[in-house]
Specification:
It is a single chain. By secondary structure, this protein is an alpha/beta fold. It contains ten helices and eight strands. The protein is 35% helix and 20% strand. The model has no long low-confidence stretch (mean pLDDT 97).
Length: 312
Amino acid sequence: MVHMSLEPEISAFLESQVQLNLPPIWEMPISQARANSQLRFNYIGAKTELAEIRDTYIPGPTADLHIRIYRPSHDDSLPAMVFFHGGGWALGFIDLYDPCLSYLAKSSGCIIIAVNYQKAPEHPFPTPLEDCYATLEWVIANSEKLGVDPEKIGIGGDSAGANLAAGVAIKARDNKVLNLKFQMLIYPCLANDFSTPSYIEYSTGYGLTTQSMKWFWNQYLHNEEDQNNPYACPMRAQDHTNLAPAILVTAQFDPLTSDSNLYAEILKRANVHVDAREFSGMIHGFFTLLGITQRSYEALEYCSERIKEFIR
């Protein structure tokens, strides 16, 4: 099979990252890594105008949680997606997602509720997962006040946020809280197995590295037994039946792509509907790079179309 190569704008972006000459994440204090994530503001594009974007706080299990609500219109019975951002459970915050989520809210017609969950290593598993699950429960409980149709709620996330979304989907099924309409998983990490083809083939040179993923997993999972907890490593769940239909988006040159491909097979075997698309020439993180590549918009449109089908 002939590999298509990186898209030129992605090559240029990767080159610009190399020029920054930053130490690898495992060699810097977490405070520095978090400060460096501000650099992403240069690449994420502009916000889409919506009917309303509003911030509030909700009570979580161990702390009040900051959420941002992206409302595409003032209709009083809109579908909703609860969204969990990426950043290896340790980095990232909602502001970096404003362009991406405002666009997705407008194109899908969903109210999007994004949460700044508490971060590892200060707050390892299960805290981020429980914060995300509590946000879903809050949205269900407050659906009328939010103008959300309680029959049309889904979840989504990217990278570590997609890991959290997959975990929340399993927990929601286990607790029978709600029939989620969909789970949107953007290049998720689903188990800490670094021997997969993509972890080996794309281990360095494409932005996210296999070594940094090992570091992120170590921040998140502090106990050996967590590795077999389905809410931490959704790939390792004993039972994947009756889960929400999945939208899986992957990038060709991403150490995490095999996780998605394996999970798609697991879900299909459990008779869960899966819509999956790999974006050629792309790298991990491209979903939010609206200022760099047109393919980000393509991925957002793809997700919007799938979401609209699932909430019909």
